[in-house]
Amino acid sequence: MSEAGKLSDGTGPERRGAGDANARAGDANTQASDANAQAEDANAQVGDVSARAGEVNARAARAVAPSAELGSAASTPLDDAVKLIRATPAEAVAAFDLSAVIARIPKPGKRTDPDSRALLNGFVNPETLDAAAFDDAADLGERVFRKHLYGYLYPEAWRLIREHQRAGHRVRLVSALPEFAVAPVARTLGIEEIVAEPGAVDFAYAQGGSNPLLTNARFATAINAKGSRGLTFHPRRAPRIRDYLRTIVASIGLILGSLVGIARKATTRKRQAMADGLMHDATTATLAGLGVRLRVVGAENASSPRPAVFLFNHQSQLDVIIVPKVLGGNVTGVGKQELTKHPVFGPIMRFVGVTFIDRSDTAKAKAALAPVVSTLRGGLSIAIAPEGTRSYTPGLGEFKKGAFHMAMQAGVPVIPVVIRNAGEIMWRDSPIGRSGVVDVAILPPIDVSAWKPSELDRNVAAVRNVFEDTLLSWPTDLT
């Protein structure tokens, strides 16, 4: 009410002062209500993503329902171990001997440098290792892990470690080796404690049945011990002669399939139709040459809605074959600048319209992604790995926000494409493939249209949790 209105009501100075105070209090309450409403909106947005994670978890739970009880006919010993972990209170402590994490230590090759050779030999004879003997022991440990060791990490160990961490348990890596030698292993698996003597623990995992670590735990699990009721871990298999031959056949199939696919659609005179033909025929021939079969759940989510930003977790070079195969046509991608120099992938990816980014320059990378929004608005979907690089384990790296910014700006949903086993079929830094089965789950779309920049970190973390939930509790049905 105006000042003139107040005077015409005959209110005195004191009444007017009280009215002003009440008005100010009302304004404050309105502002507080607005703030609460905004907070509720933000929480609702995050809740929508979390609800999506809950839906996936519920479906996964239904998928494994027949093995709900320990020792049931449908459950595996690893399933039972996971259920025990999830049922144990958060204050528990789990200790993994290095032998339960790494399948074996490879022998140094003829071209292995002297320092790396000394460290690899030191894994077998720890007393020979001395950090002072190396110019940069920490850097050496990292190099040896990335070049020689990562391929021998047990996938089952990663799963159990992650289950312990999600249950709130403390996880320790047990090794008599100097810290610089095993720190990269611990860091890659997310383990914060490295100890030589773990003390009393609730859970213990070690190779064989006679490891002393197994005598001091409430729940002791022997790994790959003959005649034991422990767990069987399956190491990633090193390539054999037939794997090299299959890879050669697959590479030829990739090239010939690309040419056939383009020729098959050339009469349309439409570049996108030819690109779709290339991706279909090239990916089909490559997977057939390797002897790789894809087992897909949620395939219906690949076709609708479109356009969309398809997010996939990245472990292997094989991912760039798997993703276009399961998504079908009318999709392109985003790749690292280095791929332009690849003699096979470079020309193929340029033909299908892949956008290349320079990961070493954040400003250039953002600028390169700007046209992708126009691509999405034009009706073409995008496939991108939000981690930005391949993982050393079946686990996930940090999700970058670029893909989500693109989806928000273009007004399209994001659709998670979760890949399991690709890192076992073709190791992270290896061009050699092995025959086998790769599981793919295409999850329901996630609407990002109402997301706010201030809540992006929380929403991205929620989407990442959807990926991890799926990897840990694999669904057999998403309907």
Automatic annotation (TrEMBL):
It catalyses: a 1-acyl-sn-glycero-3-phosphate + an acyl-CoA = a 1,2-diacyl-sn-glycero-3-phosphate + CoA. Keywords: Acyltransferase, Lipid biosynthesis, Lipid metabolism, Membrane, Phospholipid biosynthesis, Phospholipid metabolism, Transferase, Transmembrane, Transmembrane helix. Residues 308-422 form the Phospholipid/glycerol acyltransferase domain. One of its GO terms (biological process) is phosphatidic acid biosynthetic process. CDD domains: LPLAT_AGPAT-like (cd07989). One of its GO terms (molecular function) is 1-acylglycerol-3-phosphate O-acyltransferase activity. InterPro entries: AGP_acyltrans (IPR004552), HAD-like_sf (IPR036412), HAD_sf (IPR023214), Plipid/glycerol_acylTrfase (IPR002123). The chain crosses the membrane at residues 244-263. Residues 19-48 have a biased composition (Low complexity). The keyword Acyltransferase applies. The keyword Aminoacyl-tRNA synthetase does not apply. It holds the Pfam family HAD. Its EC number is 2.3.1.51. Residues 1-48 are annotated as: Disordered. GO terms for cellular component: membrane. The HXXXXD motif is essential for acyltransferase activity and may constitute the binding site for the phosphate moiety of the glycerol-3-phosphate. NCBIfam families: AGP_acyltrn (TIGR00530). Belongs to the 1-acyl-sn-glycerol-3-phosphate acyltransferase family. This is 1-acyl-sn-glycerol-3-phosphate acyltransferase. It comes from Nocardia camponoti. The lineage of its organism: Bacteria, Bacillati, Actinomycetota, Actinomycetes, Mycobacteriales.
